[in-house]
Amino acid sequence: MSTAQRLQKILASAGVASRRASEELIQAGRVSVNGQVVTELGAKADPSTDEIRVDGKPLAHVEEKAYFALYKPTGYITSKSDPRNRRTVMTLAPEVPGLHPVGRLDYDTSGLLLMTNDGDFTLALTHPRYGVPKTYEAWVQGHPSERILQRLREGVRLEDGWTSPAQVVSLGASGPESRVRITLHEGRNRQVRRMFAAVGHPVAKLKRLSVGPISLEGLKPGDIRPLTDQEIVALKQQSRHEEAGS
């Protein structure tokens, strides 16, 4: 159910202008709510029930925000479409206007993928400055020594620069492969695979276990569920992207 929000946030969410520019529109008397011009920046409205106009033109409907956790199986493209007609994660998701994946998981990588139609939320979870932790389980070739694991913890040099410190734990070996859990606070393209390749232990299999406080618990490959209100709040707080007055 929609609730009242600050008018400038509604305008920004609808793509009218940035939050700051929307405030200027309000102060200039160019915005009305239910036929009444509003000039106070603290004014609130409900985009689902109030008629909001800018320069006399009605505001486009703002879709309800949706947030999901998907257990992505291998063999799916993390994209809204694919020119090669491969399966995309959108075929596993409900039909929600504007829904898109948050970040990417490789075709051959499984695990937790968040999906939303909230652009601000996507930015908060994918921009390096917010540092939301992402934990993976990697099956790698060979048996990395403690010295190698320490290199991964401290950072390794890739073609796009040194990686940030990571949490790395050995989970044991099975035959010619080893299982390692690694937590990153950045999200470069194919970063986990490139890090292990850089230390001589290429990844054979990779699964993302969690993003911030959200995990795969209770999901099977291909399952998707809505995030709870508590989970959404926790993610926003962890990303330090919670805005005053939201």
How does this model look, in words?
The protein has 246 residues and is α+β, with helices and mostly antiparallel strands. The chain has helices spanning 7-13, 19-27, 119-126, 146-154, 191-198, 229-238; strands spanning 5-6, 31-33, 36-37, 44-45, 52-54, 57-58, 67-72, 100-101, 109-116, 134-141, 157-158, 161-162, 167-174, 177-184, 203-211, 214-215, 224-226. Strands 7, 8, 9, 10, 13, 14, 15, 16 and 17 form a nine-stranded mixed β-sheet that branches. A four-stranded antiparallel β-sheet has the order 3-2-5-6. A hairpin with a 2-residue loop joins strand 11 and strand 12 (161-162).
Q: Which descriptor suits the 3D outline?
A: elongated
Assembly classification? single chain
User: Order of helices and strands, N to C?
Assistant: EHHEEEEEEEEHEHEEEEHEEEH
Q: How many angstroms does the end-to-end distance come to?
A: 15 Å
Q: Approximately what portion of the residues adopt beta-strand conformation?
A: 25-35%
Radius of gyration: 22 Å
**Which residues sit in consecutive blocks of at least 5 with pLDDT less than 50?**
241-246
Number of beta-strand segments: 17
The SS-based structural class is alpha+beta
Mean pLDDT: 90
- Biggest sheet statistics: 9 strands, mixed
How helix-rich are the residues, as a percent range? 10-25%
What's the total helix number?
A: 6
